[in-house]
Amino acid sequence: MRTEQPKVIHLKDYQVPAYLIDETHLTFELYEDRTLVHAQLVMRRNPEAGAGLPPLELHGQDLELVSLALNDRQLAAGDYQLGEESLTLQPDSERFTLDSSVVIHPETNTALEGLYKSGKMFCTQCEAEGFRKITWYLDRPDVMSTFTTTVSAEKQRYPILLSNGNPIASGSEDDGRHWVTWEDPFRKPAYLFALVAGDLWCVEDSFTTMSGREVALRIYVEPENLDKCQHAMDSLKRSMKWDEEAYGREYDLDIFMIVAVNDFNMGAMENKGLNIFNSSAVLAHAETATDAAHQRVEAIVAHEYFHNWSGNRVTCRDWFQLSLKEGFTVLRDAQFSADMNSATVKRIEDVAYLRTHQFAEDAGPMAHSVRPESYMEISNFYTLTVYEKGAEVVRMIQTLLGKEGFRKGSDLYFERHDGQAVTVDDFVKAMEDANDADLGQFKRWYSQAGTPRLAVSERYDEAARTYTLTFRQSCPPTPGQNSKEPFVIPVELGLLAADGRELPLRLHGEAAPVGTSRVLAVTEAEQSFTFVELDERPLPSLLRGFSAPVKLEFPYSRDQLMFLMQHDSDGFNRWEAGQQLSVQVLLELIGQQQRGEPLAMDERLTMALRSLLQDETLDPAMVAEMLSLPSELYLTEISEVADVDAIHAAREFARRELASRLFEPLYQRYMTHREVSRQTPYVASAEHFARRALQNIALAYLMLSERSDILALCLDQFDTADNMTERLSALASLINSPFEDKRALALQSFAEQFSDNPLVMDQWFSVQAASPLSGGLERVQTLMQHPAFTLKNPNKVRALIGAFAGQNLVNFHRADGAGYRFLADQVIALNAMNPQIASRLLGPLTRWRKYDSGRQALMKAELERILASGELSSDVYEVVSKSLA
Ligand code: B3K
Ligand code: ZN
User: Fold this and answer.
1) Which of 78, 271, 594, 608 is most buried, by CB atoms within 10 Å?
2) 871, exposed or middle or buried, with CB in 10 Å at 0-12, 13-18, 19+?
């Protein structure tokens, strides 16, 4: 906590470390009221840092220093200087050993950073700068060391003692304590350090790597969760195999461990050999976790495992390079999920998420480039821009170089930089060198913030039989960046004939056509491409597979969009055409609503969706995606000034119209799919996800009819389903329905049935928090008093407060500002307890510029109230002050 302004760290100020740490030997003595940490650091002057012996400055936070020795000589108080978060001393030789002992208090650590307690167990979270809360250290990713770690604790309470690497020794003491020593032979930065102690049970399996080494796999959980680990274990083995095949990457230690903890600030953490997971990202069982939860577990297990190479073996030089590991690893996990499930559906989900959330970030006060130039608090930069847009940037490199070229580049990158802490430039250089390519201009994607706009116009010359597409790119100003240089925008496209055929693509000057789908690189502010030998005016299918993270503008008519929905060979663009049609129809309805006119919906949307519903050859998951109207949040994002109430009214009207006009086909599909679900035991695979997705969206529409026979179907699904996917969808449909007594009963029986499962209770909180029925704020306030709720657990905060402010737009944006006041109160309470969670929760308030002047004033007033509320963490201070700037 601080009263003065936190200092700003700049990328341009980077300097190599003055000293290096070759070996780190740690001993932890865990007690209920304190923990003793002894650190022995074998250090030397960094030869790259110049001559002489400058003072050594170590990082530390909230450490009680007990003793300090340099080369075995005890240091007296005058031999070193203790600053607020630093310890400085003067080495007297090039090589030396530093021993320190400190006392820390994990038992009172509510920030969940450093060493802390989650329930009865000890665990750590060190990325980005949590290791300095454990011991005095050079807590920066370019200082890489081997580690040996001895953990000692009471045997009865903490039978399992874990750290990174392999266990090399253990023993018991007479006083009921025991100890284990772990050795991690791979040099790593401190942010990858981990320690766990607790009464844990494990599920065990093994994996034989491509070179024939056997690796022990263990997932540690509290005993009641042993039956919920199989899906994560299967996902882990699939990930290990996939990374060998897709990227040639083999696992390197003899053991790989995952530990599930209940109190965790994010999804999971890739600590070397000892991944620590939020229990929500590892536990999955048909009866307690939805299909979405199963897919999330698979993706996060893969993501953390893939970090072993993209992040651990090759790590980041400094935190400005965060996307080097995160963007690349998100792309890798997306490619994995695409291979395990429906690739098109995965792409649709990712793009919808990016356009709704990352585009909003890019247009807001916290906008920053994929490689930021500066920060106050690095924890605030684990953003959608660094992760999701970062992944899009690497995907574009693959699109430009081709799959084979990209693989050559990644092979070179891993080989060249194994064991090093490197930069985004090193990554791009490896891609260039392996392909003899020039990505100089492309690198603007790393340094320029904001979402580019790409406006496309067409001209068909009947006499010359040519078709010209002209692209104009521009990018809005973002904080600190007023003007932008043109990006390299890969545009994958095809041209369709009137009968739906894909036309051969021959550019002016080419000897022969090159396929029917190809990538053009738009590199200028304005640039034209002319296709020749076209006997008719084609319809372009642009930005296939969302080949670049831009806002594409092309004046499609609604009939053309319907045509693309049916004929485009690119599955993503078929969905995209449907979305654009829906957006056009919804914007028209929003306009009618705002002008006080009666609402009338374009019949063509119904027609298009009807033919999809009736086509049994289509992937049901795709049909489900196409039936989902753009979210209120997405409609907010694309509005100049978002009219929350009109958006909600128009979208609800459209849903009811579709529900009544498509009642018959929805009913047919629901009945068939529900019957199959009834007769099939739960399977977590793409085909089954697809069936249930269509079944459940059909149910949600049908329930809008408010018919009692449909209510009976919904109640039956709620009562008799053997899995959480069907049960929770039925509950969500029920609680948004007008059947008040059924709502209450269902909520009550659900809570009774699952009161001992915190992850299921999170879902129970979420469906209620997101319900748009009026009185939402009061319901959330009441739920905060529920015995299962606590502000101390980040999952609970996200499930209730996060879902309310992030998804329940009509209630959160109540015109009297009570929703804003509520959120600000929670941020102020959390600021002292858990700054990272407080800062995350702020997101919706930072978007105040999107709303009408009345709401703007109310939102700003709450931000100002937070700013004036007392000692703010650097996390909250940075977001609030930048939002108000
Ligand atoms: N690398 C971690 C994120 C750490 C966040 C620290 N505030 C999880 C991941 O991206 O895999
Ligand atoms: Zn990651």
Assistant:
1) 271
2) exposed
pLDDT tens, residue by residue, 292-345: 999 999 999 999 999 999 999 999 999 999 999 999 999 999 999 999 999 999
User: Which two tokens mark 782?
Assistant: 């009441």
Atom 3 of ligand 1, nearest CA residue: 269
Nearest ligand 1 atom to alpha carbon 304: 11
State the Cα angle at 143 between 137 and 145, rounded to 5°. 85
β-sheet with 56-59: strand ranges across: 56-59, 86-89, 80-82
State in Å: Cα 141 to ligand 1 middle: 14
Tokens of 77: 């108080």
Residue 304 annotated among the catalytic residues of the structure: yes
Q: Are 825 and 789 in contact (CB under 8 A)?
A: no
User: From ligand 2's centre to the CA of 474, what distance in Å?
Assistant: 31
Q: Phi/psi of residue 500, each to 5°?
A: 95, -5
Distance CA 114, CA 59 (A): 13
How many CA within 13 A on the CB side of residue 465? 6
Q: Mutation test of ligand 1: which of 265, 269, 303 has the most ligand atoms closer than 8 Å to its C-beta?
A: 269
Selected catalytic residue, list 129, 222, 298, 304: 304
Provide DSSP, 599-635: P---HHHHHHHHHHHH-TTS-HHHHHHHHSPPPHHHH
Name beta bridge partners: 97: 42
**Between the CA of residue 433 and those of 395, 413, 416, 418, 488, what are the distances in Å?**
18, 10, 11, 17, 19
Residue 68's φ and ψ, nearest 5 degrees, are -145, 130
Contact yes or no for 822/781 (Cβ under 8 A): yes
**Secondary structure letter of residue 236 according to DSSP:** H
Give the pLDDT confidence of 607-646 residue by residue, as tens digits. 999 999 999 999 999 999 999 999 999 999 999 999 999 9
Strands (E), 672-788: none
| Gap between the Cα atoms of 253 and 167, Å rounded | 11
> Domains, the chain, ranges and CATH?
1-199 (2.60.40.1730), 453-551 (2.60.40.1840), 755-885 (1.25.50.10)
Please say if the pLDDT value at position 4 is more than 80: no
Q: Is the pLDDT of residue 779 over 70?
A: yes
Using the atom order of ligand 1, give the atom closest to the CA of residue 330. 10
CA distance 731 to 742: 10
Q: Tell me the three state secondary structure of residue 78.
A: helix
Distance 387 CA to ligand 1 centre (A): 10
pLDDT digits (tens, 9 = 90+) for 461-518: 999 999 999 999 999 999 999 999 999 999 999 999 999 999 999 999 999 999 999 9
How many CB atoms are located within 10 Å of the residue 305 CB? 28
Sign of CA dihedral 717, 718, 724, 729: positive
Q: How far is the CA of 330 from the centre of ligand 2 (A)?
A: 7
* Contact predicate 735/746, CB 8 Å: yes
- Per DSSP bridges, beta strands 80-82 and 86-89 are antiparallel
User: What's the confidence (pLDDT) of residue 270?
Assistant: 99
User: Any residues with Cβ below 6 Å from ligand 1, and which?
Assistant: 127-128, 266, 268-270, 303-304, 307, 326, 379, 382
pTM of this prediction exceeds 0.85: yes
Helix axes 291-306, 230-247, angle to 10 degrees: 50
